[in-house]
Amino acid sequence: MNIREEVRRMKQDAPFAASSKEEVRNRALLLAVASLTEHAEEIFAANHEDLAAAKENQISEAIIKRLKFDEGKLADVVRGIEQLTSLPDPIHRVTLRRELDEGLLLQRETCPIGVIGVIFEARPDALVQISSLSIKSGNCAVLKGGKETVNTNRVLFRLIRDSVIEAGLPEHMLLQAEQHNEIDELLECDDCVDLLIPRGSNAFVRYIMDHTKIPVMGHADGICHIYVDKDADFAKAIPIIVDAKIQYTAACNAVETLLVHRDIAAEFLPALARALRESGVTIRGTAEVTDLIGGETVEETEFREYLDLIVSVKLVGGVQEAIAHINRFGSHHTDSIITENSGTAEEFMNMVDSAGVYQNCSTRFADGFRYGFGAEVGISTGKIHARGPVGLDGLVTYKYKLYGHGQIVGDYASGKSSFHFKDL
Amino acid sequence: MNIREEVRRMKQDAPFAASSKEEVRNRALLLAVASLTEHAEEIFAANHEDLAAAKENQISEAIIKRLKFDEGKLADVVRGIEQLTSLPDPIHRVTLRRELDEGLLLQRETCPIGVIGVIFEARPDALVQISSLSIKSGNCAVLKGGKETVNTNRVLFRLIRDSVIEAGLPEHMLLQAEQHNEIDELLECDDCVDLLIPRGSNAFVRYIMDHTKIPVMGHADGICHIYVDKDADFAKAIPIIVDAKIQYTAACNAVETLLVHRDIAAEFLPALARALRESGVTIRGTAEVTDLIGGETVEETEFREYLDLIVSVKLVGGVQEAIAHINRFGSHHTDSIITENSGTAEEFMNMVDSAGVYQNCSTRFADGFRYGFGAEVGISTGKIHARGPVGLDGLVTYKYKLYGHGQIVGDYASGKSSFHFKDL
């Protein structure tokens, strides 16, 4: 397959996808639901091939669990798509409507980004989620999933793409890439691709960012912090920290660094250490911390993203020191404060420069489903447009429409006409 | 001056600017108004030095006009700042408020982008506009203006920065760069600078884009189109085209290419050619066009951004061909259709992939002031965040705030708790 040629066709189809009616996009989604349900056995058979190959290649049980696509997963993705069809149309939504002058109407309307490329891990449900978000938002999409689910993905993609065409959406709206070298080809299509969303390891995301002129949405690191304030309720703090560390250690929103107010350290740290160690978590900390509760002594500059049952701990003198540490060493992803003091919480939440700033809850809530977005294409730490879990809104930009009756700028420059700026 | 060191201090001050109260930012703006008015003579004296140097360097009259900062310009910028103070606060604005579960409240709030660098042409009013937009939006800003107004800029900057500090905003909120080599230093500060906004020539903007990892907002080319449909009202079309071409030829939103429906060419083109030539405009066109009205015959691939009294003309078979031409050869800036047919207009406006899509008016309306934004920092053709004239909204991003009472993800994963997603 020649990616450049395919993407060029996709770019030509993009304006048709962008101007498609909501009914047509919802019809495509409902046809996909019917088709996925009807072809369940074919999907499961393809998935069995992938699972057999994974076992042969001695892939770990944890990963095999993610490759699996069974009745339960099918029911989940079907429910997800049905939820999407019931959401309001994210495009053609008027976000500003202003009369500039008699008969000169300015309207800002949401519209799709255009052509997006999503490179994601080996998880068949991700393929369904990403393609259905693209359909709903009128975007054309190139999808490249992990090679370990190539058979499952191929069947899922065929069924969804057929539904798109049957509903009357453009033929080149969706494209599946299967070869790893096609990613490099895609990175060079900066004249046709409007946005790339890479998901995966830190190194992989950085590689994408460093090798393309196409805007990239996503995040490389996920060094999330929890700051336990002097006014913290320990009964909340400990379960939150344990959850944020162990509920899914490999996730980007798992906590990696704990900052604890010095005033409560002697009382809080031993209880925390006990709870963490009972959950199998290894503690690394500055000398002040390890003096109190043991563990490996390290400098704060050695704190890292572990994605494992390890956590860094440091003491701070107050919320300002916590904020400064997080803004300097964090990755602007998600950071939480544990405090009963709402003034301190506001200070933290206004001054920490991250996509998610939480009070008294687990960093693991940073997720499109948990935010009620239905699904997510990724999590963004960029500030230019989407931040945090990216659902439909993040797949949409806007354009200004201006409706006139022959108005020219010269008349406004000369003072013959003047604006009256009336928001409608 | 060591830019890296100064920008690092600015980054540390950014959270304080971000959490500053609206009153404090408005007070800084009003203090600036008072100070600029009070020091008018000092500003004008500095401007006379710049003008004298410009004359000595034989700079053209057209440019000297832009360097000038007199009573009229001062009155304009003062009015602009006063307008800004009366606008609602663009930050700390809640754009989503959703109860995820009992006692678990998600809020999406606008916040400043952080540290922005703006590199702009020699126009003293631009310095005032950009710094006042930054103050209002709680952003820290590095300002680098054109060297031809260095004396005027120095006085204006000092007065505004003093007002910022007097109002109680952070000391390092604003920084002026004066040396051209400081731009290259700034491009390397990707750990501290969140956004760059370069204004100026095509080549300059491309240089910035190609030499930094910092996100860049703006546009290089401005190849704007006007499509004259078969259902056009000629009495509107001709004054609109003349205005869009000659009202300010050096502007990025001046029209460069005209597309005319073949069915009306024989009748429309001679009248158009007469009006354009009377205004001193040279016509270049495809053979079909020059056969009818003369002028230099060129291929459509030779159409360019002229920023001069020159225009390209081509015939098309209908709105779809016009859309395809614009999406392929345009620069996604601003494109207008002249038609009385609202169906054709909607088709054009939905399918042309540009930041501004107009019906029956001049492309020259693409401007922050004319959109009622008060002022603009630039015009963006990017789709990832701001598009079109960038006013306060474009200087603002958002963060998600989540308020809990000890909630952990494990309880939702296990089914012990479940979300109820209630928009408030």
Explained architecture:
The structure is a homodimer of 424-residue chains. Chain A has a seven-stranded parallel sheet, sandwiched between helices. Chain A has two domains: 3-218 and 378-382 and 389-400, Aldehyde Dehydrogenase, Chain A, domain 1, CATH 3.40.605; 224-364, Aldehyde Dehydrogenase, Chain A, domain 2. The radius of gyration of chain A is 25 Å and the shape is globular. The model of chain A has no long low-confidence stretch (mean pLDDT 88). Chain A starts with a helix and ends with a strand. In chain A, 42% of the residues lie in helices and 21% in strands. In chain A, helix 5 (71-86) runs parallel beside helix 6 and helix 13 runs parallel beside helix 14 (342-351). Chain A is built from 15 helices and 17 strands. Chain A has helices at residues 3-18, 22-38, 40-56, 61-67, 71-86, 124-136, 150-167, 181-187, 202-210, 234-246, 265-278, 287-293, 319-329, 342-351, 409-413, and strands at residues 94-101, 104-112, 115-119, 140-144, 174-177, 195-198, 224-228, 255-261, 282-285, 296-297, 310-316, 334-338, 356-361, 378-380, 388-390, 396-407, 422-423. Chain A is an alpha/beta fold. The longest helix of chain A is centred in the middle third of the chain and has 18 residues, at 150-167. At the A-B interface, helix 1, strand 2, helix 10, helix 13 and helix 14 of A face helix 1, strand 2, helix 10, helix 13 and helix 14 of B. Strand 13 (356-361) of chain A pairs parallel with strand 16 of chain B, so a sheet runs across the interface.
